[in-house]
Design goal:
Number of strands: 14
Helix content: 25-40%
Strand content: 15-25%
Order of helices and strands: EEEHEHEHEHEHEEEEHEHHEE
Number of domains: 2
CATH topology of the largest domain: Rossmann fold
Distance between the termini: 38 Å
CATH class of the largest domain: Alpha Beta
Strand order of the largest sheet: 4-3-5-6-7
Oligomer: single chain
């Protein structure tokens, strides 16, 4: 079962696709995720992962970066052309470049091998929580607006309303959660720690560079439509222009 930040229980299992060329690691991850209540499929490389993802439409991918043939980065690049399914990257290389590349390709989180299965399961739960809208009270608007930006938090969709019409912007679940926090209080400056707590849940550790990578992707998607509403508050964090 999954518990959201407000303590609300989510029932049911998630469909998770584990992609790694190491059969032993796939077996270990399958055991841990099934024990945690999920339904798990396996793929040996990026090409097989894309086929299975198109056929079974999983709720999340655990995707190794370093694989023969099509690696995890290329698989994620192709996946993002048609899908916003959450991706948790795995890598045997603890290099900042790999981490940044993974997030720039549209990954939602990143784990460096070796890692504990407990940590993986915790991060999978955190990413899945962000993809499930939290219940809202009757006095909370289901739609957030700031200038031409319009977000439906129930449908998990975002638009910009411009002179030539409304344009939908596709965000990953992590990007959506971060922008939702900023949209909820335009003009308020959030520290990186506060933004992480509100988007990911209190106590979740996220490197500053990882958060910055997610914000950079949000900015790039908004700039495609001529908008640049997210300001960097130097020495602090970010805010959305009021």
């Amino acid at each position: 079962m999954l518990i959201d930040r407000a303590g609300v229980e989510f029932t049911g299992m998630a469909r998770i696709l584990v992609v790694d060329d190491d059969p032993h690691l796939r077996e270990v991850l399958r055991y841990a995720l099934v024990r945690d209540g999920h339904d798990v499929e396996e793929a040996r490389d990026g090409a097989e992962a894309l086929r299975l993802a198109a056929a079974s439409r999983p709720d999340l991918l655990v995707l190794d970066i370093v694989m023969p043939g099509m690696d995890g980065l290329e698989a994620c690049r192709e996946l993002r052309k048609t899908s916003t399914v959450p991706v948790v990257f795995l890598s045997s290389r603890d290099e900042e470049l790999d981490r940044v590349l993974g997030l720039e390709m549209g990954g939602d989180d990143y784990l460096t091998k070796p890692f504990s299965t407990r940590e993986l399961c915790a991060r999978v739960k955190a990413v899945l929580r962000r993809g499930r809208p939290a219940p809202r009270s009757a006095d909370e608007a289901p739609v957030l607006k700031a200038g031409p930006i319009r977000m439906d938090v129930v449908e998990h969709r975002l638009w910009v309303d411009l002179a030539d019409g409304s344009h939908e912007i596709v965000l990953t679940v992590t990007e959506f959660s971060l922008l939702q926090v900023l949209l909820s209080r335009p003009g308020r400056a959030y520290t990186r720690e506060d933004l992480t707590d509100r988007a990911y849940g209190e106590g979740y550790h996220l490197a500053e560079r990882t958060l910055d990578s997610h914000v950079r992707r949000i900015r790039a998607k908004l700039r495609e439509h001529g908008l640049d509403p997210i300001e960097t508050v130097h020495g602090l964090g970010y805010r959305l222009r009021a």
